[in-house]
Write a structure and sequence with these properties.
This protein has one domain: Virus Head Decoration Protein, Chain: A (Beta Barrel). It is mainly β. Strands 3-6-5-7-9 form a 5-stranded mixed β-barrel. A 4-stranded antiparallel beta sheet has the order 11-10-12-15, with no helix packed on it. The model has no long low-confidence stretch (mean pLDDT 89).
């Protein structure tokens, strides 16, 4: 049986599906993009708040355990990866009404692999990976710390090395981000 790829979603009447859409039409923040080799480390949320899936996470130096993580909040933070989506607490949301992990909950942090993340504008495979470390929602919808940016914003974004876009968007929405950690760096943005 031959496998074909089409521009439309088709379903099989029964048995094995043999036709697949060329474009990913739906994904959730923090969702794994494929079943390739992924490196996932376990961290703990000790922030006193909920941590959204798909956020860029950093070492929480205020935590009581060595593997405590939090959403990025400063330019000098040490990046550990992206908070991977889990279905342990399906109805928990953060302060911005995004699905999240509760305080004291284990976090599955992806530092190598491809993950779906929210980006605030159009990106393609050649775009630099930028992340918000400060809120910018007054100007750009959805620009919360830990989410990704399509453009440089003075005093709000940093470039993330060790990551690259592997899909493109025509505007704000979900894009696939390949992480090649665990050695990440937050570089000056311009």
């Amino acid at each position: 049986m031959a496998v074909t790829f089409t521009t439309t979603v088709t379903g099989a009447a029964g048995g094995v599906q043999s036709s697949y859409a060329l474009e990913l039409t739906a994904a959730l923040e923090g969702q794994f993009a494929d079943i390739a080799d992924n490196n996932v480390a376990t961290f703990v949320n000790e922030t006193g708040a909920r941590v959204a899936f798909g956020d860029l996470l950093v070492v929480n130096t205020g935590g009581t355990v060595g593997n405590s993580a939090k959403t990025i909040a400063a330019t000098g933070d040490t990046v550990v990866g992206v908070n991977a989506l889990t279905y342990i607490e399906e109805k928990v949301v953060d302060a911005n009404n995004r699905p999240a992990a509760s305080d004291k909950q284990a976090l599955n942090v992806l530092n190598k692999g491809v993950v779906a993340v929210y980006v605030t504008g159009a990106v393609d495979l050649t775009s630099p990976v930028r992340v918000y470390y400060a809120t910018h929602t007054g100007t750009t919808a959805g620009a919360h710390p830990g989410r990704f940016s399509h453009a440089y914003v003075s005093g709000k974004t940093r470039r993330l090395t060790g990551a690259r876009w592997v899909s493109k968007t025509t505007g704000a929405g979900i894009a696939l981000l390949e992480l090649n950690g665990p050695d990440f760096n937050l570089a000056a943005d311009s």
